[in-house]
Structures are given as structure tokens and as C-alpha cells.
């Protein structure tokens, strides 16, 4: 049942191209328009939405953070992302013009369910992005947009994360299409880029041997840091979470811009730091800022492990190790840059002799509050 892989996690990492492909499938008409029939919320309500709040926990919340950059850019709708267990105990300002998006692989996470109810009580409409057909969160939500990643068995989320991001992109593009804003004409182009992603994810998976070698050599690391900016920031958080939950290594993700506000004090000789580099073909200053962050930490002795696009030569001089991902638009990069971090954590945990499918103290779905 593990399909010849030593663990469900490895199997699921390898299923990611298919998970993204299945999530995209059947959601466009022959003219290239997005058709989300499942989104059973009145179009007039969706047109009137003036705020989006994403609620989720753990990895799903990082998918929500990635979605925020895309949704705000494409739809120009203010978007917040909040951990469901914080949202539900605040007195959040939510009303009939708020669209709440609940992200959950299992559809059974208790805090996310409670956040959904809390939002609905105040008149908000809720869309669930979920991987488990007929589970509680999509049943209680006003509409459900399913990710079609297939069952995820390993406790650490991998393919569901990529599928959640994909579905959230579709939701953002659909709202842009419906509301006819200035990005409407770009939707077909972005969809074409999305459809090219499964093959690119496969290329990253095919290059995993180098990542595994590095993981093997780092099994005694006491702490690993992850830096990213823009959509690379939630990817950094996800890379750190994977390493914590699987390899029980202290790991932290930071927004690269925060470095000089504190975390740079952690950098000493030999400290491994992963840096997720945005495409140099995107906003110039964004790429340049991350390159200068790499220089800053290298100058203080960090061992820099850089995830960068093919052809990005600006990073080469400051990287101890480089893993390349194929070129893609900046907003879609998390579908690629996350993959080496998953492979790294899985391999390092395996090298330490840990069970990657069942890490200690964790459950696949957290149905308690
Ligand atoms: O089923 P959900 O997507 O609601 O689960 C949310 C989190 O519990 C989950 O993503 C958790 O953080 C994973 N162990 C991460 O790998």
C-alpha cells in the first residue's frame, strides 16, 4: 500500500505532481474560464465581499498565508490569515460581506470547525478548502472546494499542502474573474502557468538525491533556521515545521526582513540556514533584498543552503549549497520551493531512525480543542 516507497510520507511527496494536477482538473470551460460549480454561494454575495479571512491550523495555515499574497494581488480584496484557535477566541470583525475560507486537509480539525461556526454566527459565508469528502468542515460550510490530493496518511502534511495552495489560487482567480477586476485578462495566462506546475514539481522531485545527501550529512545539527520573504516566508515556516515534527530538531522560520530586528543574533559559525530566494524575474527589489540577506548571514559564519530558480546566478557566490527549482511566476513558487524542504526533513528524520509517518506526540487530525 506504500506503493514501493519506504514510507507513506515518501509516497505522498512523490504524488505531489498528481495532487496538483487533480486539483486543477475539470475546473475550466473550453474558453478557458474558471468554472467552480461547487462554490454554491450566490454570485451577488461573492461580488459584494469586502474582506476575506482565512482560518486554519498548522501547515494548512501556511497554505493560507501563501494564498493571501495571491488573493490580494489578483482580487484586491483585503485578506487576513489567522490561526483558527486564535480567531475563535477573539471578537473578530466579521459580517455578511466577509468571506471566510477554512483550510483543512482532514475537515475534522476541531479548532477550525469552531472558527467556522463562530464566523457563521456573525453572518459570514464560509468556503471550506478540504481534502476529505463529506467530512465535518465542508459539510457545515456554505460551500466546499475539494482538493483532490487523494488520502494523506502520513501525519506530516505534504501533498495536501500543495493541493490546498492550488485550490486557494483557483478561488482567488475565480473571484477576480467574477468581479471583473483588472487582472481578469491575465487569468488565462496564470492558469496556463498553473497547469505547467505538475511537470515542474516532478523535476524538483527528480533532483532529490542531492537534498538527501545534504540531509544525511546534517543529522547531528542542533538547530536549523529558514528565511524567506513574500510567499517564501510561509514556505520558510513550513520548512521549519516539517523539521520539528519529523526530526525533532529545533527549527525556526523567519521573514528575512526581521533578521536585523533580532534573529541575526542567533547566527554564529556553522549555523545552517535555508534561504528561499524569490524569482529574479519578479520584483527586482524583492530578489535583491534576499540576496543581501544571504550575504549578511554568510559574513557571520552561517552555512547557507539556498533554494533558487534555475539561471539565478546572483546567489551562487554566497551559497554553501544550492538547490534549483524551475522558473515560474513568483506567486506560484511555493509549489516548487517547498518540495526540497519536505524531502530534507523526511530524509534527515529517516537518517536519525525516526518513524516519519507517525512522529511522536502527534495525531493526523486534531479533533480535540
Ligand atoms: O487536517 P488539517 O489540515 O486541518 O490539519 C491541520 C494541522 O493539524 C496539520 O496541518 C499539521 O500541522 C500537520 N501535522 C503538519 O504537517
UniProtKB/TrEMBL annotation:
Organism: Kocuria turfanensis
UniProt-annotated location(s): Cytoplasm
Protein name: Glutamine--fructose-6-phosphate aminotransferase [isomerizing]
Keyword presence, Cell division: no
UniProt EC number: 2.6.1.16
Residue ranges occupied by any SIS domain in the UniProt entry: 41-181, 214-359
Subunit composition and interactions: Homodimer.
Main location: cytoplasm
GO BP terms, alphabetized: carbohydrate metabolic process; fructose 6-phosphate metabolic process; protein N-linked glycosylation; UDP-N-acetylglucosamine metabolic process
GO annotation, cellular component aspect: cytosol
Source superkingdom: Bacteria
Catalytic activity: D-fructose 6-phosphate + L-glutamine = D-glucosamine 6-phosphate + L-glutamate
Record: active site: 364
Task of the protein: Catalyzes the first step in hexosamine metabolism, converting fructose-6P into glucosamine-6P using glutamine as a nitrogen source.
Keywords linked to the UniProt accession: Aminotransferase, Cytoplasm, Glutamine amidotransferase, Repeat, Transferase
Molecular function in Gene Ontology: carbohydrate derivative binding; glutamine-fructose-6-phosphate transaminase (isomerizing) activity
Part of the full-length chain shown: 255 to 623 of 623
Amino acid at each position: 500500500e506504500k506503493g514501493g516507497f519506504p514510507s507513506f510520507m515518501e509516497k505522498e511527496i512523490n504524488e505531489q505532481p498528481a495532487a496538483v494536477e487533480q486539483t486543477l482538473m475539470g475546473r475550466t470551460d473550453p474558453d478557458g474560464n474558471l468554472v467552480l460549480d461547487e462554490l454554491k454561494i450566490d454570485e451577488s454575495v461573492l461580488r459584494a465581499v469586502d474582506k476575506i479571512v482565512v482560518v486554519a491550523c498548522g501547515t494548512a495555515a501556511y497554505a493560507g498565508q501563501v494564498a493571501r499574497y495571491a488573493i490580494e494581488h489578483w482580487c484586491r480584496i483585503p485578506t487576513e490569515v489567522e490561526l483558527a484557535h486564535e480567531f475563535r477566541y477573539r471578537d473578530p470583525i466579521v459580517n455578511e460581506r466577509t468571506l471566510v475560507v477554512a483550510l483543512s486537509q482532514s475537515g475534522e480539525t476541531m479548532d477550525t470547525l469552531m472558527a467556522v461556526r463562530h464566523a457563521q454566527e456573525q453572518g459570514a459565508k464560509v468556503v471550506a478548502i478540504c481534502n476529505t469528502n463529506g467530512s465535518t468542515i465542508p459539510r457545515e460550510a456554505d460551500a466546499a472546494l475539494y482538493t483532490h490530493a487523494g488520502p494523506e496518511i502520513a501525519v506530516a502534511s505534504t501533498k495536501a499542502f500543495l493541493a490546498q495552495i492550488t485550490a486557494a489560487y483557483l478561488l482567488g482567480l475565480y473571484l477576480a474573474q467574477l468581479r471583473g477586476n483588472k487582472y481578469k485578462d491575465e487569468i488565462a495566462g496564470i492558469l496556463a502557468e498553473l497547469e505547467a506546475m505538475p511537470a515542474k514539481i516532478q523535476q524538483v522531485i527528480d533532483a532529490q538525491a542531492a537534498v538527501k545527501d545534504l540531509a544525511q550529512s546534517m543529522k547531528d545539527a542542533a538547530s536549523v533556521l529558514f528565511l524567506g520573504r513574500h510567499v517564501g516566508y510561509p514556505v520558510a515556516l513550513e520548512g521549519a515545521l516539517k523539521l520539528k515534527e519529523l526530526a525533532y530538531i529545533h527549527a525556526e522560520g523567519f521573514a528575512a526582513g526581521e533578521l536585523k530586528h533580532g534573529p541575526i543574533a542567533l547566527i554564529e559559525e556553522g549555523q545552517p540556514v535555508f534561504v528561499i530566494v524569490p524569482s529574479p524575474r519578479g520584483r527586482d527589489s524583492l530578489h535583491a533584498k534576499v540576496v543581501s540577506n544571504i550575504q549578511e548571514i554568510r559574513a557571520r559564519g552561517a552555512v547557507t543552503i539556498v533554494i533558487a530558480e534555475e539561471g539565478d546566478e546572483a546567489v551562487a557566490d554566497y551559497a554553501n549549497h544550492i538547490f534549483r527549482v524551475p522558473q515560474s511566476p513568483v506567486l506560484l513558487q511555493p509549489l516548487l520551493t517547498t518540495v526540497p524542504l519536505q524531502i530534507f526533513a523526511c530524509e534527515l528524520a529517516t537518517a536519525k531512525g525516526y518513524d516519519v509517518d507517525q512522529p511522536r506526540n502527534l495525531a493526523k487530525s486534531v479533533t480535540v480543542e
